[in-house]
Amino acid sequence: MSPVPRGTGDRAAGDRAVARGEIPAGTEATEVLRAVSAPLYYCFAISREPLTTADAQRSVAAALAGARAGAFRAPGSPRG
């Protein structure tokens, strides 16, 4: 089995979300995933707080809200 190029799954998931109208075209899926994982990483590795389902849900909700607002669109991507 050949390796999957890095970021391929991110882009595919992002493309599907754009096609469903969930996020704007030009959204960088990798940046959305970073926005989801950063608060969780902080709790896990920096503050050493236990992670809960509520933490994960809040992280996803915040990243999705940002994505829907266009916060993760690639520079120069068309608005739409």
Overview of this structure, please?
Helix 2 (29-46) runs antiparallel to helix 3 (53-68). This protein is elongated. It has helices at residues 8-19, 29-46, 53-68. By secondary structure, the chain is mostly helical. Helix content is 57%, strand content 0%. It has 3 helices and no strands. The mean pLDDT is 87.
Question: Which descriptors would you attach to this protein?
Answer:
80 residues; 3 helices; mainly alpha
Spans of at least 5 consecutive residues whose pLDDT stays below 50 are none
What is the average of the pLDDT values?
87
Helical proportion, percent range: 55-70%
Distance between the termini: 38 Å
What oligomeric state is this? single chain
What percent strand?
A: under 5%
Main sheet summary? none
N-to-C SSE string, H for helix and E for strand = HHH
Q: Give the helix/strand class.
A: mainly alpha
Extended strand count:
0
Q: Number of helical segments?
A: 3
Principal-axis shape equals elongated
What is the radius of gyration computed over CA atoms, rounded to a whole number of angstroms? 14 Å
